[in-house]
Automatic annotation (TrEMBL):
Record Pfam families: Baseplate_J_C, Baseplate_J_M
Protein name: Baseplate J protein
Sequence similarity: Belongs to the Mu gp47/PBSX XkdT family.
InterPro entries in the record: Baseplate_J-like_C, Baseplate_J_M, Phage_Baseplate_Assmbl_Protein
Domain Baseplate J-like central: 182-259
Occurrences of domain Baseplate J-like C-terminal (ranges): 266-348
Amino acid sequence: MYEDQTYEALLERMLDRVPSSLDKREGSIIYDALAPAAAELAQMYIELDVNNNLYFADTATGEYLERSIAWSGIVRREASKAQLKGIFYKADGGFVDVPLGSRFSLDMLNYMAVEKLSPGVYRLESETAGEEGNRYFGSLLPVDYISDLARGEIASLLIPGENAESDESLRQRYLDSARRPATSGNKYHYMEWAMQVVGVGGARVFPLWNGPKTVKVIVVDAEKLPASELLVTKVQHYIDPVSGAGEGQAPVGAVVTVASAKGKSISVSAKVTLASGYALQAVNDEFKGILESYRKEKAFSATYISQSVIGALLLATEGVADYSELKLNGGVGNVMLSEEEIPLFGNVLLEV
């Protein structure tokens, strides 16, 4: 808006207001007096332009984005703690129960036993919020002595922890809410309810999937992977704990079934020509990371995985000069996805 209000333009306008009979050349008293003021005014216009952008949801960031959309009731999601399955054993290999509230450490993180799932099997909660708690699997060390405990381990991730919501994610949720109003138990209302459960990273709704008044909600976790049984149960309990009774978010009479998305494994193979100085293993790992980002982006938004797009991603991988014989699931062509499926890239094999 104020791109034309540069230091040079401001100084020229100021000097034009000085009579020509006075010396206003560079280095003169008048010039040296006006130049600092022009510089400050130019800086003010820059800051004014930035501040104007902070008032609107499409350009605001941070706290100002939160304040600009506060009227809608949409707030930034805080970082959540990872939920993991912990298994504890006696010296003879049998299961042993541990007290709820017991704390355990693994590398630099601590976990707490918060729920008993079965004998010797517990739901652990990371004491560190965010994605950091998702990364660790292995042997646990008790912080305090626990009788009969020989060893413990983290066996699987139940509900991924999430970092605080990014500006782009928050902005997109706000825009989606404005463009697709969720009201009166419509399709988008069910999507909104599902996304309100901590750990849910996406949802798809199928109205009338099994007859009148039936609704099916398919969810993925924060990593855009098939949701665990625990997460599915949490969503079911939040939306419709007693079928049709209206004791959750769903209206009376709506029979809601919540299920996890199905993962479709996709293998990728190709022959590549490496750029000078690059090793095949490093390039393969880099390509896997790119595929993982692409997978998260396309979960619940793609109806197929395009071979040409995968080829473009491979060619854009650092160290790849060219490729040939690209195959998805051993064949040539796109891989189709059903409405309940999300892509999972399995074996990725690059050869020279």
